Amino acid sequence: MTSFELSDPDVFTTGTVGPPGQRVFLLQVRADDLVVTVRCEKQQVAALADYFDGLLDDLDPTPYAVQSRDLELVEPIEPLWTVGPIGVAYDEPDDRIIVVLEELIDPDELADGDVEPESLVDGGSVKVRLNRAQVMGFVRHSRALVSAGRPPCRFCGLPVDSSGHPCPRMN
Questions:
Q1: What is the mean pLDDT of residues 90-114?
Q2: 55 and 90 in contact (C-beta within 8 Å)?
Q3: 67: which strand partners?
Q4: 160: DSSP letter
């Protein structure tokens, strides 16, 4: 599958396509003329932002400016594949946060014999080395994006569509 390793990307961001309740979340990395877009879940974006925030809190304070580049998605927005496992590490000598996004392999394809076990090693991946400014920019942008979804029900916490929703706590 398609893999990328970007040691100094220009932008690492997230965005959505579609209306609230039907949004598709995407992660995008840009370096020069290369644009890599992969699909992910809203929970993955939120968890990555939370993890990054905690990681930045744990690091020695260093002055840095939050990434000021445009963090909106750019074409091509068509995702290459869906993100499964996400790994994060800190490279102390270079003061870089390393993120590895791995392709989600459908277990049904394995059960059907459509995918050979050896090809799991060849699943797609995106490895990026980010500076602190890029990570803080991602955290701020991600939190705003995640919170811009459908409002939660005041009784059960589930998302409410414009037409309402069948609340399990209201009989």
A1: 84
A2: yes
A3: none
A4: -
* 100/91 Cα distance (integer angstroms): 13
User: What 8-state DSSP symbol labels residue 75?
Assistant: S
Give 9-23 pLDDT, tens digit per residue: 999 999 999 988 789
In the chain, alpha helices (H): 42-58, 107-112, 132-147
Tokens of 91: 């490279």
Residue 45 has φ and ψ, to the nearest 5°, of -65, -45
Give dist(CA 143, CA 49) in Å, integer: 7
Phi, psi values for residue 150, rounded to 5°: -65, 145
Q: At CA 82, angle to CA 79 and CA 37, rounded to 5?
A: 30
The separation between CA 25 and the C-alpha centre of its own chain, rounded to angstroms, equals: 8
Q: How far apart are CA 160 and CA 138, in angstroms?
A: 27
**Which tens digit of pLDDT belongs to each residue from 71-90?**
999 998 999 999 999 999 99
Are 157 and 151 in contact by the 8 Å Cβ rule? The answer is no
Fold (CATH) for 3-147:
Secreted effector protein pipB2 fold (3.30.2450)
Residue with tokens 């602190």: 132
Residues in the chain: 171
| Beta carbons of 82 and 101 less than 8 angstroms apart | no
pTM over 0.70: yes
